[in-house]
Design a protein that fits this description.
single chain; 840 residues; alpha/beta; six-stranded mixed β-sheet; five-stranded parallel β-sheet; 29% helix; 21% strand; NO2/SO3_Rdtase_4Fe4S_sf; FAD; assimilatory sulfite reductase (ferredoxin); oxidoreductase; NO2/SO3_Rdtase_FeS/sirohaem_BS
């Protein structure tokens, strides 16, 4: 039996062993794996989930040591290679002979050589042990953490600090975040969106030193001579360096920037030694992603089995959700090819940026960047290097193209890669489906597609659907039920917590899909205050503080003003609050007054003043009813035929606080002139000479829809009954984050079916829907008041846990048009202007 020694037990080394075992049915190879860490191989791509409840066992890859031909040695470091004797010596003194040696030693984090980098409280972000050390340090900090490096891993580290309860700062030398993946325009928008999550971003900032702070354990991060950040922890995420010290000592040829030089067979300058992953240099390039490493592992496994596979480069496309922001980059994203043209949609108000790089004749896709909305990624990435199916602008500007932008999977050829991490083509997936893989887990098991980063999973679902395989409506991998089915389960069982629901009807710990969705279900069915107990941990970002976070880390306060009607006394209170707390004020399109610039520790005091004056939360932060806009109706207008203000106030007070799958907006117009724009709302009411017309399914946003008539000439009580039924039916049956317009469009029978349910009671559930709404009305209580009356909830509203009254020193303002606004330029996300750039 031949001896294969693998130095390194990371993801790529693990993949190599799996690939060799899959090809070596005759048992020709005995494999010895040397792992430096004391634990088996684990998923570094998902490392950040460790801060969101995942355990080391959850991250572990399948155990290789159970195979009779695999000797897995954990906690054993290779110290020397004797090429002449073909042996490897380990730290324990063991000497292992090999017929073939594979270096899979990976990389090590780079720490800039600045003074203070070795101080206690300074960490790197690479291994589970590193994460344990970060967690321990964060437990005793002052509330601020600094991440050095604004790349992929740096933003993940920032999110980790946020999950640990700190206020993260990210320091990046480049002019924008993620400079290796996105361009200037995408980076500008990314910076603005990351800012809105409460992470303070410092670009074009150079780290000069780390010094001890003014208190024990504190650190001072110097950015030049005149700027510093006081913090309790510093995490370095500047980049990595290939671990090539063993190869260097053994006299192997190295790449120009480090790493072990290899050929297309992943052989080093010694034909008995291969190198794969982040320690290997191919044509002078060291790849820092798992997909190229996996491809190299497959090449070496094929060669050991007698094949002739070659590594000729790898897809470095990435699609990630960083701090809740979608980012994707693929192909020649930087437009380095000669004659490359850029087609750009830069929609700053819509919070999306898209760029395609095409050939000089605009017929071939070369690459692209997507920020804010990466839904087109799955269809675009497989087209890189191929002829475009049409106008490139139609692929990223949904308003122009049919079908919502991007390209359908049906248009892709069989050899197009669907999963770049594991090099799985559309043809391979269709073959698996044809062989009986009838759901996403089965396709994953057969092909490995979707088992790494997961960005191709939507394409797998589409391919299954187009192959005629009925698809699951599961909410996520943790619940086999749809959102509507979970609503019915909660109603039938009386379950009141997420942990109870997932224990009895789900699996695992949950994720950022099911947790907020279940929180919304529990809230809409009378689950108490959203910050009570376990509920608080499930909420989306804004719901955590019952306010919308803004670009500089402050919050907006939006009191409810039903129907837009407000007394002079209440207006005076709003003005006094804005003046006393130094807030920016703005009247919105929904007939409310927004107060911007409140620090988190100021929120309870501001709410107290407003609540005392008779205001309550306007739910601007929640997936709930926002506003019921009205005109002045018959009270003042000579054209009005009904009291639109009175009806708007009645509806807003009735449905306030109703948690729903998505936000809800409404309008009431006193005549057909439609001054309240009721037909652009989720439900709209327009007065007639004999009553009210009810319209449903109107939405603003990226794809506006006009509401359509559901019922006409209704009296007041009937109108309210129909709206009760409509809203509660929507709450119980819509998918997560599904607005009313697509909900109706996706419904079998569409508006006609909805009319039958709401007006004709075709399902016999009208009485129950009305009763559910009556329970909501009876149980309603103001969420702001609920915080003010509960000391435990009040304790959440601080910038620093050890200094509750202290303001965040990083927040600053300047004056514009006599009002305070965030200091510094607003990142509008504008790229370098080109003739072929479309700006929205």
């Amino acid at each position: 039996m031949r001896q294969l020694v693998v130095i390194g037990n990371g993801m790529v080394g693990h993949r190599l062993v799996e690939a060799v075992r899959a090809r070596d049915g005759a048992g020709a190879w005995h494999i010895t794996v040397l792992g430096e860490e004391p634990r088996p191989a684990y998923d570094r791509v998902a490392l950040s989930s460790y801060f969101d409840g995942a355990t080391a066992d959850d991250l572990s890859l399948p155990d290789l040591g159970t195979h009779p031909h695999v000797d897995l040695r954990l906690g054993e470091t290779a110290t020397a290679i004797d090429r002449d004797a073909r042996t490897v010596t380990t730290a324990s003194g063991a000497v292992l002979g090999y017929d073939t040696l594979v270096l899979a030693t990976g990389s090590t984090p780079f720490v800039p050589p600045v003074p203070g980098r070795d101080l206690a409280g300074c960490h790197v972000y690479r291994t589970i042990d590193d994460l344990d050390a970060i967690t321990a340090t964060a437990a005793g900090t002052t509330g601020t953490g600094v991440v050095i490096g604004g790349g992929l891993l740096g933003l993940e580290a920032a999110n980790a600090l946020r999950l640990l309860g700190l206020r993260p700062h990210v320091v990046e030398m480049a002019p924008w975040l993620m400079p290796r993946q996105v361009d200037e325009g995408g980076g500008a928008l990314l910076g603005r969106l990351i800012d809105e999550t409460g992470v303070t971003v410092h670009t074009e900032a150079g780290l000069t030193a780390i010094e001890p702070g003014d208190t024990p354990g504190a650190l001072r991060v110097r950015l030049g001579d005149d700027h510093h950040i006081d913090a309790g922890i510093v995490v370095f995420s500047v980049g990595v360096r290939p671990r090539d010290e063993l190869a260097r000592a053994a006299g192997l040829e190295l790449g120009p920037r480090g790493g072990v030089a290899v050929d297309t067979a992943c052989r080093t300058s010694d034909p008995y030694i291969h190198a794969i992953g982040e320690c290997a240099s191919t044509d002078g390039t060291v790849y820092g992603l798992v997909a190229p490493g996996n491809a190299m592992a497959e090449v070496v496994a094929d060669r050991l089995a007698g094949g002739d596979a070659e590594f000729t480069g790898a897809d470095t496309s990435t699609k990630l959700k960083l701090l809740g922001v979608d980012v994707a980059s693929f192909g020649d994203a930087a437009a380095t090819a000669e004659g490359a043209l850029e087609v750009v949609v830069n929609d700053a108000p819509g919070r999306r940026y898209a760029k395609l790089v095409v050939s000089d004749d605009a017929t071939t896709l070369l690459g692209g960047v997507l920020v804010g909305d990466a839904t087109a990624y799955a269809g675009l990435r497989p087209l890189v290097g191929r002829e475009l199916p049409g106008d490139p602008l139609d692929l990223i500007a949904p308003a122009r193209g049919e079908g919502g932008g991007g390209i359908g999977v049906g248009a892709l050829p069989a050899d197009a890669q669907i999963c770049s991490c594991n090099a799985v083509t559309k043809g391979a997936i269709l073959d698996a489906i044809g062989d009986g893989a009838d759901d996403v887990p089965a396709v994953k098991s057969c092909t490995r597609a979707g088992t790494s980063c997961g960005s191709c999973v939507p394409m797998l679902k589409t391919l299954l659907a187009e192959a005629g395989v009925e698809q699951s409506t599961a909410l996520c991998e943790h619940f086999a039920h749809s959102r509507a089915e979970l609503v019915e389960i909660v109603l039938a069982t009386g379950i009141a917590t997420f942990s109870d629901l997932i224990a009895r009807h789900g699996t695992g710990r949950g994720c950022d899909i099911c947790k907020p969705a279940v929180a919304s279900i529990l809230a809409s069915l009378g689950g108490g205050h959203i910050l009570d107990g376990e509920q608080a941990a499930l909420q989306d970002t804004n719901d955590h503080f019952l306010a919308n976070i803004q670009r500089n880390g402050t919050y907006s306060v939006v009191p409810r003003i039903p129907g837009g009607e407000v007394t002079p006394e209440k207006l005076i209170v709003i003005g006094e609050v804005a003046r006393d707390f130094g807030l920016y004020t703005k009247i919105t399109g929904g007939q409310r007054i927004d107060l911007f610039g409140a620090r988190v520790e100021q929120l309870p005091a501001i709410w107290g003043r407003l609540v005392d004056a008779g205001f309550e939360s306007g739910h601007a932060y929640g997936k709930a009813l926002r506003t019921v806009k009205s005109c002045v109706g018959t009270t003042w207008c000579r054209y009005g035929v009904q009291d639109s203000v009175g009806m708007a106030i009645e509806l807003e007070l009735r449905y306030r606080g109703l948690r729903s799958p998505h936000k809800l907006k409404a309008g009431v117009s006193g005549c057909a002139r439609e001054c309240a724009e009721a037909r652009g709302k989720d439900f709209g009411v327009i007065a007639t000479e004999t009553g009210w017309n009810l319209y449903v399914g109107g939405n603003g946003g990226f794809t506006p829809r006009h509401a359509r008539l559901l019922a006409s000439d209704l009296d007041g009580p009937t109108l309210i009954r129909y709206i009760d039924r409509f809203l509660m039916f929507y709450v119980r049956t819509a998918d997560r984050l599904q607005r009313t317009a697509p909900w109706i469009e996706a419904m079998d029978g569409g508006l006609d079916h909805l009319r039958a349910v709401i007006v004709d009671d075709s399902l016999g559930i009208a009485a129950e829907l009305e009763a559910a709404m009556e329970r909501h009305v009876a149980d309603y209580s103001d969420e702001w008041r609920g915080v003010l009356e509960d000391p435990h909830k009040l304790a959440r509203f601080v910038s620093f846990a050890n200094a509750p009254e202290a303001p965040d020193p990083t927040i600053s303002f300047e004056v514009e048009r006599d009002q305070p606004v965030p200091a510094g330029p607003v990142a509008l996300g504008l790229p370098v202007r080109r003739p072929d750039t479309l700006e929205v």
